[in-house]
Give the backbone structure.
Amino acid sequence: MTPHISAKKEDIAKIVFMPGDPLRAKFIAENFLTEYKLINSTRNMLGYTGYYKGERVTVMGSGMGMPSIGIYSYELYKFYDVESIIRIGSCGAYRKNLSLFDTVLVESAYSESSFVKTYGFSNENTMHSDESLNKTLKVAAKRNKLELKTVKIHSSDVFYRMNSKEYVDISKKYDLSAVEMESFALFSVAKSLGKKASCLLTVSDSLVTHEVTTSLEREQAFTGMMKIALESLLIK
Ligand code: HPA
């Protein structure tokens, strides 16, 4: 047990899928996994371990923002011997060429966050996902005829910026296609511990067109992203 996870070590699989929302973790277990069991409910950060087509996987919420995913990913890698974490989340589009419901694979995350400096790992502002995990996710997408764009994203510490147009400069300067709030921390924790991390995101809103999605639409788009993540478990 750790301060934030009450599971037994053997109850957590080597690969963990992390949606931000713990209720999303519950939904995934109930709809996609067999023989699943609840392995964590500390702070209601629900986690389940089960099987997809015979492959063991844990799915657990990360919470929102870098401090939250920083805590859970560190404890999973360090104390539960987790090898790989795939974040499965949503993002806001910075570019017109990203449409609502598109699924993207995050190649790298730029951030102005102090997370990685404070953590003590690096002074860099860009962190990369794991190439071998990305390769597997791309193969899974192709085999299932699902489109997957590879992008660079912005991991922001702030959801509501006072200057709502600030993103235009940031996205141009660093060539960023979308924004979320966790990948930069996840990738740096993984790298620092010699582990693997990647991230799939569904576009849920657009900062350019101001379109937003309904919950039903998000549900359907999310299924494509989930299929890529789950089917990647079968690729050896
Ligand atoms: N900003 C930050 N994180 C997000 C957004 C956004 O617009 N949409 C989904 N995650």
